[in-house]
């Protein structure tokens, strides 16, 4: 697809100085004579430098210095391998005192990562590596040198220069922008007047990298001295066309200047190289020449100090990171000439008021404006829109600023994008002609920021969703592969067994042997346990039941006797009570003896049943328990007999002792009637004593066994 107008047509009109025009535009008062009448001055070193890590349109680098590090002038402070990142360098020699958040050069003043440095006053350079014959150097190495020098566009956008020089599309027009159309700013004007030859050197380097068909240097017609200096510097190269452009704001905009010089319009979502054009600022050309021929990175730039609130408006070389307060003090700042303290970074059309005088100078800072009272319109003067349409006539991008204003104010972001909000170059021409003094650009910037934030959130959500779905698909695929692998392995085993019939027979035989062995083991275990454990368990269960029955009967008899004693205690004389107590003691003794005999006989019977063992069994597991039982049976019988004799002997003695003790108690004190609580306690004590005796007997029986 051919690009119109053609290259030949453009060249013919450039030679005739017959240029095109862009729509809209305004003619604000220049006010450039305040600062462009004196040469660029050098400012003394500030006490402290605040160097933001990110000073360009792109990614920030990683800090490669630490607090307390001694650095030299030109030493890199950050590094990055990202394509859109450029490093920053130490503007002078000194010590790093802090790395943290500091006020940024942004309309919001939001803090950003900043390296704080205290100069040592020596201004000692690091080692430099200039290139004298750049034509002999590989283009990629030359582009890398430009990137390492930290050069970004100095015209205001801050786009990394090495990205533009890496263009793979054919370039017809290399345009050098010397249009400084915004009021008050004169930094490029003084740079072109005083350093035209070095700008020409930077143009030669760009010509070597891009190989354009034509080089056009555009300068406004209100800068005759700069135009003359560039003509002299470029007169030996016929490929360079120095063109005077009519002074119309915003002719310095990238898209507007390309349209003025070539008649071509940059696509709405395209770039200048899509139509065969590449543009660089004159300040960028100066920095490229410094980096190639002197080996110096980008450490300083020309800044215009202007406004009627300054005693000495002028242009100065300002180190990057210099606080605004230091430059204003050098120019004689008079805050009392203002209604309220106001310093604008940039011009009155596209600049913004800074939130702190500690805000540092960065690579895109071209002007500091300190207006006096009533010099610029105040934001407090905003009134309602009267729908005059002047903003539409002034818009250089052919937009509808009034509609954009309404939708931006209502936060209807879909409508603002429908009306091409992002085509707005924020030149401020609409706000300049607005009779209601509405800061239209302010609303547009705010709406753009909100839309960008929303896009970022949506992008993050979409990426998270994609990661989740990718992980889910990966897990499902891994599961499918595992199942497929297992299925294939099973099929292979089946096929192998089908081919080899002996393998199946071997497996069946092994299973049969395992089952037979298991059955044999179970039978042996049952034969061993049945003759020994079964009689023993039955005897034990019967013994336990007998004991429980005897204990229950004894408890019932004891309760009955105690009840009789309680009811007849009051009516019976003391002698009858004594006889009854003696009888009770004798009965208890007889019961204990009888219980001991029965327990001994039961144990003897269990031992005899245990001795009955299968005489045919020859296994060691059956022989050992039989021997133990034969040995234990006589021992148990002997112990039972001894216990019976002892009980028979002790029974009369215990009865006599009990009777004597009762008589002695009755002689000492008369019997007292027992309360229900005392009777209850005695019952509990007797039950505990019986339980202890029973436990002791059981334990002695187990030991005997």
TrEMBL record:
Membrane-topology descriptor: Peripheral membrane protein
E.C. number(s) listed in UniProt: 7.-.-.-
Superkingdom, taxonomy of origin: Bacteria
Annotated keywords: 4Fe-4S, Cell inner membrane, Cell membrane, Coiled coil, Electron transport, Iron, Iron-sulfur, Membrane, Metal-binding, Repeat, Translocase, Transport
Sections of the chain in a coiled coil: 444-485
Keyword Transit peptide: no
Compositional bias (Basic and acidic residues): 598-610, 665-685
Skewed-composition ranges (Polar residues): 565-574
Subcellular location: Cell inner membrane
Binding site for [4Fe-4S] cluster 2: 395, 424, 427, 430
Short name of any one Pfam family annotated for the protein: Fer4_7
Residue numbers binding [4Fe-4S] cluster 1: 385, 388, 391, 434
Stretch list, region Disordered: 522-705
UniProt-listed InterPro entries: 4Fe4S_Fe-S-bd (IPR017896), 4Fe4S_Fe_S_CS (IPR017900), Ion_transpt_RnfC/RsxC (IPR010208), Nuo51_FMN-bd (IPR011538), Nuo51_FMN-bd_sf (IPR037225), RnfC_N (IPR026902), Soluble_ligand-bd (IPR019554)
Biased composition (Low complexity): 614-637
Subunit structure and binding partners: The complex is composed of six subunits: RnfA, RnfB, RnfC, RnfD, RnfE and RnfG.
Role of this protein: Part of a membrane-bound complex that couples electron transfer with translocation of ions across the membrane.
Membership in a protein family: Belongs to the 4Fe4S bacterial-type ferredoxin family. RnfC subfamily.
Protein name: Ion-translocating oxidoreductase complex subunit C
